Amino acid sequence: MSADQLVVTASPHIKAADTTPRIMWHVVVSLVPVIVASAWLFGISALLVIAAATLGALLTEQLAGRPGALRDGSATITGLLLGLCLPSGFPLWMAFLGGAFGIGFGKTVWGGLGQNAFNPALVGRAFLQAAFPVAITTWPKPGGSFWTLGGDLFALPFLHPVTDAVTAATPLGLWKFEKQVTPLGDLVFGTTGGSVGETAALLILLGGVYLAFMGCLNWRAPVAIVLTVGVFSGVMHALDAGKPDALFMIFSGGLMLGAVYMATDMVTVPVTNPGRWIFGIGVGLLVVVIRVWGGLPEGVMYAILLMNATTPFINRATQPACSAHPRGSRHERSSGGSGRAPWSERASIRSIVAPSADSRPGRRLCRPAAGHGL
Amino acid sequence: MMGMSQANLEAPVIKGTTGVVVLARHETRGAAVYPCIHCGRCLDACPVFLNPSLLGDFARVQRYPEMADHHLADCMLCGACSYVCPSNIPLSQLFQAGKAGLRRIPPPAAA
Questions:
Q1: Contact B43 A271 (CB under 8 A)
Q2: What is the value of pTM for the model shown?
């Protein structure tokens, strides 16, 4: 073998098998049961809505994104998730537009994968909610023949849709406006009105468990969301029986889809584990606040988008403590005015790290031990 | 796994050489590098509790003083972050460059 056939790379020379596209495609695979359930419940029209949103996302990524960006699978996830949180009779051109907007303004203008501050699927949905508030809250009834084309699927662009489908209010809408509580069984198995992919809470949960087992999902944010919503609404239900109980809140609306698939989007949630707990708790509180006291029946989308905005601050507040420093001393550069003990007083730590290092307050480095070989 | 690659088969084995590892092409890390998706695996892997994700972002734009603020000097170049990174970002190589870059910057005069 001649030397020019040698592969010269930077160390480490081997690598864990997981790659970013593999993680993304695992998420897509875990969404398949949810998509099948949406077809089962809402028929072919659900599949058409999902396909239109995905097509919009993929086309925009191909045209506006980085070359080859389609292969990493993240645009597919965005399109599928957007489609899954739209009602089944949603006009297809609107779904397409939502996917295109979500990728275009939620992702590529930020610089593509990994750079966006807000979840692209939710950006697309927020856009659709603002632009087409009637169409996005027209919920065709689940059930009926598979081949029935519900709602205004084929409404022409920019024409006012004419709704004549049989509609069913969502459980949250029923509770908010008519004070009716949907049975828990319907919520868990998805036989209620709602967006095509958000009703089958059980299958979404299974997809999340699969992803957590495959190591493609950090469980902290979804667990924090479900626990917070459960505890907060449970306490309120105990104080005032007119408020919905915890299980209803957890299994209704988009909470499960949001918690498992939107609040685990690694790009837009905090990178640290404590940060993910804080993020989840914030989402949970906002969801309950919006649902119970807000004007909208459902608030998962806005809760997650609002917490996405706080992600940089959460990241900054929850930086890991460097092992050589006690927690609290890591922002050494800001310690000038904070009255923290200067380095020289932390002799016990310094004696381990750098026995002979003198204290130089002006120098912001945490200094290596003598003979560290740097 | 943190040894140096050799491009030249004539390289001698010297006193300090602790081992020679030969890997087939398919066993080495691929060339494809993806953007950081901030999955946080490097934070879990780091033995000295740094934030390699953030340090990598700084290193790419050569903001070495900020890297120092985030305790780059405590990085011992173990390579655990590069090993787990699903985006195949050469983090430890970036940190090595960061450390070299910092050495070029004269320390501020003592206050």
A1: yes
A2: 0.83
Length in residues, chain B: 111
Give the model confidence (pLDDT) of B35-92 as tens digits.
Answer: 999 999 999 999 998 999 999 999 989 899 889 888 898 899 999 999 999 999 999 9
Please, are residues A334 and A212 in contact by the beta-carbon 8 Å criterion?
Answer: no
The neighbour count for residue A65, using CB atoms within 10 Å, is: 22
Q: Please state, in angstroms and rounded to a whole number, the distance separating the CA atoms of residues A233 and A81.
A: 26
The radius of gyration of chain B from alpha carbons, rounded to an integer in Å, stands at 16
Write down the pLDDT at residue A374: 36
Low-confidence ranges of chain A (pLDDT < 50): 329-374
Instruction: Give the pLDDT score at A65.
Output: 85
* A361 interaction partners in chain B (CB closer than 8 Å): 110-111
- The DSSP annotation for A4-68 comes to GG----PSP----S--HHHHHHHHHHHHHHHHHHHHHHHTHHHHHHHHHHHHHHHHHHHHHS-TT
Which residues on chain B are in Cβ contact (under 8 Å) with A332? 69
Distance from CA of A115 to the nearest CA of B (A): 8
